[in-house]
Amino acid sequence: MTDRRQMVSVVDDSDSVRESLPDLVREFGFDSRAFSSAEEFLASGTAGETNCLILDVGLPGMSGPDLQQELKRLGLSIPIVFITAQGDAALRPRLVALGAVACLFKPFNDEALLDAINLALRMR
Amino acid sequence: MGKGPESVADEATPTMTSLAGALLGTLRLAFVVVRLNDPDGGPAVETMRTDTSTEGTASDLSLASARLDVRGELGIVVAGARRLEFPTPTDTLVLEMAAKQAGTALQQIRRLTTELRRTEQALLESQRQSMPLLDNIPGLAAILTPAGEVDNVNTELVDYCGQPLDVMKQWGTNGTVHSEDLPHVAQVFGQAIASGEPYDFEARIRRFDGVYRWLQVRGLPLRGRNGDIVRWYVLLTDVDDRKQAEESLRKSEHQLRLLVDTIPALVWRGTPEGDLDYLNQRAVEYLGYSAQSLTGGRWLELVHPDHRETTIQRWLQSAATGSPYDDVYQLRRADGQYRWIRSVGQPLRDSDARIVHWYGLVIDIENRKRAEDELRRSEAFLAQAQRLTLTGSLWWDVSTGGVTWSEETFRVMDVPRTVTPTLELALSRVHPDDLALVRAMVDRSASEGANLECEPRLLMSDGTVKHVHVVLQNAGLESGKPRFVGAVTDITERKRAEAELRRAYDHLTEAQQLSQTGSFSADLETNEHYWSEEFYRICEFAPGSRITIRRLADIVHPDDVPLYESAIERAMAGTEPEFYFRIVTGRGIVKYLRGFAHPIAGRPVFVGAIQDVTAGKMAQEALSKAGAELAQVSRITTLNAWTASIAHEVNQPLSGIITNAGTCVRMLNAVPPDIDGARETAKRTIRDGNRAADVIARLRALFDKRDFTREPMNLTEAVREVIALSANDLQRNRIVVRSELADDLPLVTGDRIQLQQVIFNLLRNASDAMVDVRDRPRQLLVRTTREDGHSIRVTVRDTGVGLAADSSGSLFDAFYTTKSGGMGIGLFVSRSIIENHHGRLWAEPNQGPGATFSFSVPVAE
Question: Cβ of B654 and A107 within 8 Å?
Fold first, then answer.
């Protein structure tokens, strides 16, 4: 662990996820903030201090992959862990190929999430 | 006066009168009286003349007198004048001179008269012995007493009658005069004797030989000095020959008149000047006027006013020049009717070539005129008929080669009227291809007199071809010389119509075959039926075999006999002309027939058409089966989509539950355990669990009722659920959903699942339509509204690619799709669902980009 706790941001439009996930992430020992849309995340100015982004694929408006592209375009190389409620197995390799660290299907357990976050932080 | 002709008075009076007249005028007297005395002591003779122009009273008169002789025994002249100076010396002189001169003349007259009287006396004396004188008269003569008795007769009369004087005296009773003439004779004779007037009559007198001959009998009275009849001299002249001649002339005239009056002609005669002077009896009866009443040009009043002027001109022209007269005009008959007549006249001239009379005839030509008019009219009719029927008539005398054509024949043959028609001319018109045949037929007709009938073509000078029908009939059979009367009809139009008809029939037959439609007409009264070829084929009857109502009834499917009978009833009544029934053909094949029939006005005859709709029927059944299967497929497809949605929907709370649970465990495991945090996460776990349970409950509601059920439902609620179920899908496609849902709508009756399936379908279609849209927002508007009080409308509006311009009709067809991955059954099934709900589903393009799909279903009752 370092002096300053790593920042792990969550972007998901589902209430259940936004309510539950930040607490779990903080239990892992990271800082965490939740946003309901990609636009909200971009507008918050949090992107610069975010060390890992947990991003929902099916967001209204700008989708998860759109945000991924947008961050690339802005020159912010934030490691991204995608989460999705859509059980489409073909989705994962596509997202990984685009630069995602991992893609978790909801519901996922806390170990899988921690592994993914650790993997992401290591990639920095 | 009673004086004889020899009396002084008679002789003197003229002299006295002229004297008086001369004096009256010369001396301007008021009156003159001349008195002449009778020397024998008889009464004096007086003459008086007055001038009526001088008027006045007696007192105005001045008188003067003069003696006729010196002594005044002869007589006196007395003159009166209304002049005060009268008599002047001149008056006196004139008066005396005139009296003297007149006296001399009167004295002379008196002397002469006296002498005459003496001679008379002597003559009378001599007559007393005058028999020899009577006998000397060359003729038949008699002398009668003043009372009319026969006094004497001459010898010649005795000889003529062969009777002695004694017998002759009894002429009135002894048959001397013919008994038929006696009454007339007695009357004339008796009257003459009584009046003393001379008589003259004709009577038949019996001759010596007993033959009555006509004699003219003239009697003259001989008077004595005192005027009394002394004797009657009677002269008899045999006029029998003349009488006979007269009689025969009269007879012949009578004959002639009879002839003129009897001949059935109206005869007139005119004067050289041109006036009418005689009409025969028939003419009088015809005109109702005698010739006398029409003289002076009055006959012209009988001429019709329209013709009067020309009639006058023509008649005067003839009368003036003496040229024969001939005119036609209308003349009023006795019955008032104007009749067409022809009047002809010829002048009769004497030896000096002067016109003596005009003789003429009036001929009533009214009937002929009418007949002529009738003939003209009927000729016109015939020509018109020929014109209309394009039929010309013709005549051909083989022996003379003479050919006659009617006007229409010239027209049909296209030959100018001025050309003389011949057989060769006719043949020259025949189309070269038909010429040999026609010529052979004509030759046979000419040689054998055989009738001819053919339909050759004519080649006209302008290159067009005419079809004609030619008929020749031998009208000279009995004479042995063929003479043909015939007709030539232009049938080009008919031929064309026939060809047209044949072509139309072929087309119809073909069309009937293609459409498997047969037509028919049926006369139920006579049981006569006409069926088209296709009808036979449909029923599988032998072509041309006899059709009856029974025969058709026999092949009607047993279950459909009532339908068939009702169809006939309705056809007869002219109501609901459509019908359906099945037949079973001889081969046992069941066919579905659909048709219609309607009666022909007022008769048990109807016409109609019948179509074999078996194939269509089969196809329809197959289609509805396929439709059912498709609906099933669609349902499964939809379920798959829903399953994905459900998974997504359930995974969200599930994800929360697991995360919370994981967090909770970690908080409890921490040292020290974070009890408050764990409690908080456990609470969230419960909440997410409930969320998942809600999703499951909704799913149960969706899938519990799989069959079509009708129940009152809130459409807005149903829409809301579908939007919730589709939200994830829509989000993934980055579609912004805007909903305008009315909450106060009345309920509709329907199958909730099916209607939601439709809504789901519309949302998915809208979403799919916007997948490729990148240049504008992907907006979806879902709206529920109440529509005119009776139905609820659901509208789904997108900003997608819109509708293809020509696709609106086929949008709802099965398998119509614009999507590469779609099956094209969504809208087809959707529409059938909405129609099952008595609603409708439609699509329309937006003003801007995209399309709007809507459906409406009725409000629950």
Answer: yes
> ipTM score here?
0.85
Pick the CATH number of B263-370 from 3.30.450.20, 3.90.1150.10, 3.40.50.150, 3.20.70.20: 3.30.450.20
In the predicted structure, residue B705 carries a pLDDT above the cut 50:
no
Question: Residue written as tokens 């008149």?
Answer: B257
Give me the CATH code for the B708-861 domain, please: 3.30.565.10
Contacts for B298-306: CB closer than 8 Å, 24+ residues apart: B302/B331, B302/B332, B303/B329, B303/B330, B303/B331, B303/B332, B304/B329, B304/B330, B304/B331, B304/B332, B304/B338, B306/B330
B728·A58 Cβ contact <8 A: yes
Task: Provide, rounded to the nearest whole percent, the portion of chain B with pLDDT above 90.
Answer: 16
Domain count, chain A: 1
The 10s digit of each residue's pLDDT in B344-393 is: 999 988 888 888 889 999 988 888 888 988 888 888 888 888 888 888 99
Neighbours of B88 (CB within 10 A): 13
Question: Cβ–Cβ of B655/A60 closer than 8 Å?
Answer: no
B87-96 residue pLDDT tens: 888 888 888 8
**For domain B497-612, is the CATH number 3.30.360.10?**
no
* Inter-residue contact B276 to B301 (CB < 8 Å): no
List of chain B residues whose C-beta atoms are within 8 Å of the C-beta of residue A24:
659-660, 662-663, 666
Query: Which residues in chain A are contacts of B691 at CB distance < 8 A?
Result: 16
Does residue B825 surpass a pLDDT of 60? no
CATH number 3.40.50.1220 given to B392-490: no
Domain containing A116 equals 7-123
Rounded Cα distance, B17 and B523, in Å: 125
Q: Is the pTM of this model over 0.80?
A: no
Domains B129-240 and B263-370 share a fold: yes
Residue A95 lies in a domain: yes
